[in-house]
Amino acid sequence: MELFRIKKDIPFMSYGRLTTAISLVTFILAVVFLATRGLNFGVDFTGGTVMEVNYPQAANLESVRKAVDSIGLKEATVQNFGSSHDVLIRLPVKTGVSVAKLSEEVKTALVAADATAEVRRVEAVGAQVGDELYENGGLALFFVSLGIMLYLWLRFEWRFAVAAIIANMHDVVIILGFFAFFQWEFNLTVLAAILAVLGYSVNESVVVFDRVRENFRKMRKASVVQVIDNAITRTMSRTIITHTMTQTMVGSMLLFGGEVLHNFALALTIGILFGIYSSVLVACPIAMWLGVNRANLIGDVEKKEGGKKEVVVEPDPSEFAS
């Protein structure tokens, strides 16, 4: 389906140096924020107290949050657990306050807001559990990235694999940079969003790379710059439709999903916006700088058509510089 038909190829690669320079600056800023400010880890990673509260009627989450906020626990996470009658409250570590005393303060505030509140369970989440989640989250990112790289290497060629993984890591680091700069809470839902962004971003890269490979077969006398520009332009309609629909869904979660889904949707929003940019204006220039051409993509074998040898045009660095 092509709603946005673009007749003339857009010279994306002529802006390659500019777009990659912008990406490099953004990437460096994100790393600086991560190094200087660090991530604001939630209870999932730092440890704390978990309380399960039951109500005879559907729980009013907003009322529960206000009750918890009233005793100075604004970092607490409140969400439904299993059913609309059960609420799970994650409380951060409070210096100088024991788990028993903290849970009693929360229980008093909840009962004051609604006398029908019943605390079913109180558990302490130790820092060791948080450390394990931190390590497992890092391993998850590593193995997902490795799997993506191997897949692209097998399906296309190692230059595309390297380009795509650099672009994907660019997206991940920028998301983390935003969370470090604004000190938004980083929890397991945000980690899940980052893993989703990795898959989403590589999907965009595969679509463009697949069209590049197809163009190398069809546009046999075109330069590499022309082949890539045509591939990006021809997939532009699909890109606009796909990302608009996806962002509409994520935007609805961001605006109407409540506190539990807010940071998840926020991470997805940043990832989708930068994923479009990196898949087109970061991955493709890097692939071209690495020397991708028709010979190393679809085989360095000369084919004869009509008694004539096929002409393979190598990339001209001067074209990219212009």
Q: How is this structure best described in words?
A:
The chain is an alpha+beta fold. It folds into 2 domains: 12-40 and 130-304 and 311-320, Multidrug efflux transporter AcrB transmembrane fold (Up-down Bundle), CATH 1.20.1640.10; 48-125, Alpha-Beta Plaits (2-Layer Sandwich). It is built from 13 helices and 8 strands. The strands form 3 sheets. The chain has a 4-stranded antiparallel sheet. A two-stranded parallel ribbon has the order 1-6. A two-stranded antiparallel sheet has the order 7-8. Strand 3 and strand 4 form a beta hairpin. The longest helix has 31 residues, at 188-218. The two termini are 33 Å apart. 34% of the residues are buried. Mean pLDDT is 82; it is low at 300-315 and 317-322.
Descriptive keywords:
about 65% helix, 13 helices, Alpha-Beta Plaits, alpha+beta, four-stranded antiparallel sheet, Multidrug efflux transporter AcrB transmembrane fold, about 325 residues, two-stranded parallel sheet
What's the layout of helices and strands?
Layout: H1 16-36, E1 40-41, H2 43-46, E2 48-54, H3 61-69, E3 77-81, E4 83-92, H4 99-113, E5 118-125, H5 127-155, H6 158-182, E6 185-186, H7 188-218, H8 224-234, H9 236-256, H10 258-281, H11 283-289, H12 294-298, E7 304-305, E8 308-309, H13 317-321
Parallel strand pairs: 1-6
Antiparallel strand pairs: 2-4, 2-5, 3-4, 7-8
